[in-house]
Design brief:
By secondary structure, this protein is α/β, with parallel strands linked by helices. Helices cover 30% and strands 26% of the residues. It folds into two domains: 188 residues, Spore Coat Polysaccharide Biosynthesis Protein SpsA, Chain A; 42 residues, no CATH class. It is globular, with a radius of gyration of 17 Å. It starts with a strand and ends with a helix.
Length: 236
């Protein structure tokens, strides 16, 4: 199963390569040389600039690559992901074991017929050994299995994977989450898409218009601050 790391203007900060060194970093062609210079030995794949510049558009380009994989299954890891947190052990997963965990996740998703799969959205989310797997529910670090009924929506750029989750709900498609593991990420203004506040607001408002105004919580000045998980439950 292929692991893809979408990246943009962040050649020196592809932290995800430290735990997934065999992953393919997908970058716009105009930035290919810089990424190769800063990440010698990494698998860098350039796509036309016209397929980049919008997170949903870029994920569509990656999906076209992913469907050529066995079982059409692939995983997308954000470039600022710095590790996987094991809630049972109370510690970070060794880098050497991280890729194998994604294979286990994909295999379980295949067994349960899931077209979308991921990990716990945070280490604070309660976890119980007898309830290690959750069908549905917001997740991080997304895996996908090709399904022609699903498509990334460019109008909700920045929330495109979350929006695909709602599409799964609407179509009664299985979305599987492994609650034992959570994603660790290095946040901050380190590069990447650096979406402007207005872009975040517009993406969040588009998501709210499409799925209901309670799905997205907005700050008083209209900026997106996250998904309303209670509203998500109401969509189940």
């Amino acid at each position: 199963m292929k692991t893809f790391i979408p990246s943009f203007s962040r050649a020196r900060c592809v932290f995800a390569l430290e735990i997934f060194p065999a992953a393919t970093v997908v970058v716009p062609a105009s930035q290919e040389a810089e990424y190769r210079r800063c990440n010698p030995g990494a698998d860098i794949l350039a796509i036309p600039d016209a397929q980049d510049g919008n997170l949903a558009r870029k994920r569509t380009a990656i999906a076209a690559l992913g469907v050529t994989e066995p079982d059409s299954a692939y995983v997308v890891v954000d470039d600022d992901v710095s590790g996987l947190w094991d809630k049972q052990a109370g510690a970070l997963v060794a880098s050497a074991d991280a890729a194998a965990l994604l294979d286990v996740l994909a295999a379980e998703a295949r067994t349960q017929g899931a077209v979308m799969f991921g990990l716990s959205p945070g280490r604070q989310l309660p976890w119980q050994a007898e309830r290690e797997w959750t069908r549905g529910g917001y997740a991080h670090l997304y895996g996908f299995r090709g399904n022609p009924a699903l498509a990334f929506d460019e109008n909700v750029s920045g929330f495109e994977s979350s929006e695909l989750f709602f599409q799964c709900r609407e179509r009664n498609l299985v979305f599987l989450r492994w609650d034992r593991y959570a994603v660790e990420a290095l946040r901050g203004n380190l590069g990447g898409s650096n979406r402007a506040c207005t872009q975040c607001r517009d993406g969040g408002l588009a998501l709210a218009r499409k799925w209901g105004p309670l799905v997205v919580e907005l700050t008083p000045d209209g900026l997106v601050c996250g998904l309303n998980l209670n509203a998500v439950k109401q969509l189940a």
